[in-house]
Here is the input.
Amino acid sequence: MPVTLVLILVLAALWETTLLVSDLIRGRGVTNEPSQLLASGALVWLGNNLAFGLLYWLMDGGGPTARLRLVVPVDLAFTQQLDPDLKPGWRPVFLDYLHLGFTNATAFSPTDVMPLTLRAKYTMLVQATVALALFGLIVARAVNAFT
Here is the structure.
């Protein structure tokens, strides 16, 4: 059930991104007013990051409950897991996955968390691509509207 809800949130976030990008391309809706465009873009970006943070949290190693039994990372390797002397017994919590979502959407690549499986890599690829398209179009349109 939680996986279904998170997938619905991710699909809703992707749909909102698609609608905003479509409006940007066609010059409709909030795209004609720079302050509304930036506010809408920030809200869509935030929604994407929250949805993907939840998705990473549920996806990694089979979810939070299954990860309790794991000794080594499965889908995502955090820095603290790669060096056992750094933080003995450390386990990621939801905020670590939320941080992953924000850094992936900002840097468009892994920062301090390495994807280990194809599903982790392609999930990060989708999120980075969506964030790049959103940033590129919103910034270009906002700069154009302000000048």
